[in-house]
Request: fold
Amino acid sequence: MGIKVSNVFYTYQKKTSHATQALSDVSLNIENNEFVALVGETGSGKSTLVQCFNGLLIPDKGEIEIDEYIVSFKNRKSRKLKNLRKHVGLIFQFPEYQLFEETVEKDVAFGVKNFGIKGKEALEKAHLALSQVGLDESFYQRPPFELSGGEKRKVAIAGILAINPEILIFDEPTVGFDPESSKELMSLIVNLHKQGKTIIVVTHDMNLVNTYAEKVFMLDNGKMVFSGTPSELFSHIQNYDRLDIPSIIKVAKKLKEKGMDLPLENIRTIEDLLPYIEKWREKDV
Ligand SMILES: Nc1ncnc2c1ncn2[C@@H]1O[C@H](COP(=O)(O)OP(=O)(O)OP(=O)(O)O)[C@@H](O)[C@H]1O
Ligand SMILES: [Mg+2]
Reply:
């Protein structure tokens, strides 16, 4: 079934003079095993929305249906919500701040134990998750606070992977990573997608959206203003400054304006564009 968001509203610090309406009548659908990106300017409500997906925040109005779970104000006290956190794994923007156990191994096993898996089995799951993020045995007994920023982030991601959720949400996963670590993390996410997981990535990185996302949603000031494919998004956006659209798309648009016969919806990489440039050259010779 996937995720069905219907007319969701959320306000922080309700009934105070600081009340901020973060989500306003948001609706969307995500199918199982889709790879989805959620974009929008800072403060547009992205993190708020994904925190509603695992019941960490409860909408004031509207509801979110996620497979057999319903997140709504009416259902806020349902005991099922705890299991929803096993079904939907949310990896925060700076998950490394949430490491608190004495060793990496214990930290990764913590979440698993929370869902009733004990002892050796919990450790086995932790070890498997650590190998998925590329951390070997030499990390098991190290204190998390001694690790580099990137390694901490990997430990935090392993903590969620160990629970093996069906839906994985990454809030700005590559921010602060060098290009190589970003690539490694994205290939891990792609692998999880191939294994059948539903992937939701919150990002400002339009190259990431262009390369990986099948569908993209855009929030603006708490409202859903766009849903479609990445190519549709890039052709829909007129003002390049608001979204930093990938250079390859800008080049393709310019070439089309100059008269090149280009199916913009199929151009995502330089390799996609090259045959059209070749054809254009042949025509000129
Ligand atoms: N804990 C909070 N208390 C009060 N207001 C908040 C809180 N968290 C977020 N907000 C406000 O809610 C709105 C949406 O914030 P949110 O963090 O969801 O945006 P975002 O799209 O994730 O932004 P960013 O790209 O900067 O991460 C903003 O106006 C923000 O200031
Ligand atoms: Mg955010």
